[in-house]
C-alpha cells in the first residue's frame, strides 16, 4: 500500500496596506519558488484586470517583460513596477496593478513595496 507523504507548502501569502493620496492601497504578495505575484488594488475586493510579467535576463542586467493580459493603458503601471522589482530581487515578478494612478501616485505606491521588502525580506 502506498504511503502518503505530506510536504510543507511552497507558496506564501503576505498582505499589507498603504495610504497614497488619501486612498487606501491594498497589496498582496504571493511568494512562490523563485517568483512573486503582486496584486495592487484600492478596493477590498481584489481585481485582476491586467497582469505584466518581468524576468531576469541572463544576457543583460536589464530584465525583460511582457503583458500577459489586460488593457494597454494599464500595462505601463504594472510594467514599470514589475521590471524594477525584478531588477532589485533578481527573480521573476508578476504584477497586477488594478488602480487608476497618476504620475504622483505611482512612485508612492512603489515606495511602499520597497519599504515592505526592506522590513520583511523573507516574504519576498
From TrEMBL:
Give the superkingdom in one word.
Eukaryota
GO cellular component assignments: proteasome complex
Would the keyword DNA repair turn up in this protein's UniProt record? Answer: no
Q: Please provide the Gene Ontology terms (biological process) for this protein.
A: proteasome assembly
| Keyword Nucleotide-binding annotated | no
Q: Which UniProt keywords apply?
A: Proteasome
Q: What name does the UniProt record give this protein?
A: Proteasome assembly chaperone 4-like Protein
Q: Which organism is it from?
A: Tribolium castaneum (Red flour beetle)
Amino acid at each position: 500500500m502506498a504511503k502518503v507523504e505530506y510536504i510543507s507548502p511552497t507558496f506564501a501569502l503576505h498582505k499589507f496596506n498603504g495610504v497614497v493620496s488619501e486612498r487606501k492601497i491594498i497589496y498582496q504578495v504571493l511568494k512562490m519558488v523563485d517568483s512573486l505575484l503582486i496584486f495592487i488594488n484600492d478596493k477590498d475586493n481584489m481585481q485582476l484586470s491586467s497582469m505584466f510579467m518581468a524576468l531576469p535576463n541572463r544576457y543583460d542586467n536589464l530584465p525583460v517583460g511582457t503583458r500577459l493580459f489586460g488593457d494597454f493603458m494599464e500595462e505601463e503601471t504594472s510594467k514599470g513596477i514589475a521590471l524594477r522589482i525584478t531588477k532589485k530581487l533578481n527573480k521573476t515578478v508578476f504584477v497586477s496593478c488594478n488602480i487608476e494612478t497618476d504620475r504622483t501616485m505611482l512612485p508612492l505606491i512603489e515606495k511602499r513595496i520597497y519599504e515592505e521588502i526592506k522590513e520583511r525580506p523573507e516574504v519576498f
